[in-house]
Amino acid sequence: MSGGHPSRPDGARMQQAQIDQLRRVAIPEQSHFVAGRAFAGTDGGRLDVISPIDGQLLTTIADGSAADVDAAVGAARQAFAAWSATAPAERKRVLLRFADLVEQNALELAVLGVRDNGTEIGMAYRAEPLSSAGTIRYYAEAVDKVYGEIAPTGHGTLGLVHREPLGVVGVIVPWNFPLMIGAWKIAPALAAGNTVVVKPPEIASLTLLRLAALASEAGLPDGVLNVITGRGGCAGEALALHMDVDVIAFTGSGAVGRRLLESSARSNLKRVYLELGGKSPNVVFADAPDIRQAAKVSVNGIFRNSGQVCVAGSRLLVQASVYDRFMAEMLEVTARLKVGDPLDLTSDIGAVSSAAQLHKNLDAVALAEREGAVRLTGGEQLHKDSGGTYMAPTVFAEVTPDMTLAREEVFGPVLAVTRFDDEADAVRLANATTYGLAAAVWTGNLSTAHRMVRAIKAGVVHVNTYGGTDITVPLGGFRQSGFGRDKSLHALAEYTDLKTAWIAL
C-alpha cells in the first residue's frame, strides 16, 4: 500500500469506462447450476439480490431446498466414477483451460462480484478472478506431480501408500471473497479427482454461478462442479446432513462451524474442514524498521474491503514508547481514505456487504463506547442518501482485553488499539483471544521476530508486513479459528484418503 490508496488497481489493465459499461448490464434471474446446466429447482422459491452499492434490486436467485441439494449431490455422485478415473494429465488439461477462461473473463467477474457484495473494484479484480485463476492453475499443474509412497518394508513384502479422492465434496463459502475462497477449496478437490457441490452465500452467489458455467465451457464433465444457491439454514444444512457427501469444506463463522460438526455427527461422520473467524493481533515494536510504513500497511490490514477480511488485523498492539508517533501516522493515513462507490476507481474502500452487517458494525461501535473505549475517528454510516451501505473507518483507543471489542470479531472497519510495555506484555495481549488465525509483528530485531512467531498462537504470523501470502503456503487457524488448511500442496491432503497396499512377494 502506498499513500492513502491501499487498493488502487493498475489503470493500464482496467479502465473506468469498461467498468461503467459492465455495471449497466442487466442480470437475469439466476438458477442453480447442476449437471452442466441451469436448474430452476423443485419448488420455484426465489431470493432477492440487493446491491450494497445503492440498495437496489440486482436480480433474484433460486432459494434452494433439500430436494435441490439432493439433485446436485446425485449429479456429483454419478459423475465421480468417471472423473476420479480420468488420467491426471487430462484433469490438468481441463483445469488449465478453466483457469484461462476465468482470467479472460476477469473484469466481468470482478464487476459482477462488486455489484453483489460491495468490495472495492481494485481489490476485487486481483483477489477474486485473478487470484482464482491462479489457484486453479496451481492445482492443475500439481495434479500430475504428486506421488504415492513406497514403504521401507522387509525384502519379503512391498508396502504401497496410495492417495485416493474422497468422493463428493460440499463447499460452503462466505460472502466477502466468494470466488477466491471458493477456488481454494474447489480447485484442489477437483484436481484430486473429487466432484463438488458448492453452496454460495445467499448475498454473494452470482460469481460462483458464473464460475461453474465457465468450468463447463472449459470441458469439465457434467456433474463434476455444481452450485446450489439459497439460505444456509435450508440448502446449507441439507448439504451438511446429506448421507452421500463425504467432505464439507467451510469458511465462515464459528457458530455455523459448530453446527456443521453437529451435522456430521448426525449424518455419516463426513469430514469437516473449518476456517472460522479471527481477532488477529498486529504488534508494533519500537524498533520497527519504518514506523510510517508500518502505519500505512496496518491501515490497509484492517480497512481493506471495509474490514471484511478473515485475517484482518483488528487488534493493533503498539509499544508505549512509540505509541503517540505511530498513532499520529496511522490516523493521518486513515483520514485520507476515500469511502465510496466500489466501482469507482478513485475509491479506496467500498461498501459493507449488507444492511444487516452494517447495523452489526454500528452496534459494535456503540457497545465499545459503553464499555469505555475511546473513539478516535469514524464510527458512523456514510452516504446514506445513496441507498448503499457505507461505513467510515473506525479507530478505538484504550481498549482493554476484557472489552467485547478486544474479544469478539466485528468483521467490519473497526480497529481496537492497545498499548504494551515489553515483549512479554505483547505476547500476553496477542494471545488474549479464543481465536488464532493470523498475526503480525513489526520489529528490526531478528531474534525478537523469531521468538514472537513461536510465541503467538496463530496459523499465519507476518513479519514486517500484513497479508501478502500466496498460494504456495497454507492458510488456516489455531484454537477457535478452526482446523484444516487452504492453499499450498498441503490442501490436496484434505481431499484425498490414504490407502495401504500390503503385498507379499
What this model shows, in words?
- The chain has 505 residues and is an alpha/beta fold.
- It folds into two domains: 16-276 and 480-504, Aldehyde Dehydrogenase, Chain A, domain 1 (3-Layer(aba) Sandwich); 281-470, Aldehyde Dehydrogenase, Chain A, domain 2.
- The chain has 15 helices and 22 strands.
- It has helices at residues 16-23, 66-85, 88-104, 106-117, 121-142, 178-191, 206-217, 232-241, 254-266, 291-303, 323-336, 355-370, 404-407, 423-430, 446-455, and strands at residues 32-34, 37-39, 46-50, 57-62, 149-150, 157-165, 168-172, 195-199, 225-227, 247-251, 271-275, 281-284, 315-319, 374-377, 381-382, 390-391, 394-397, 414-420, 438-442, 460-463, 482-483, 496-504.
- The strands form six sheets. The protein has a seven-stranded mixed beta sheet with strand order 14-17-18-13-12-19-20, sandwiched between helices. It has a six-stranded mixed beta sheet with strand order 9-8-7-10-11-21, with helices on both faces.
- Helix 3 packs antiparallel against helix 5 and helix 3 (88-104) crosses helix 7.
- It starts with 15 loop residues before the first helix and ends with a strand.
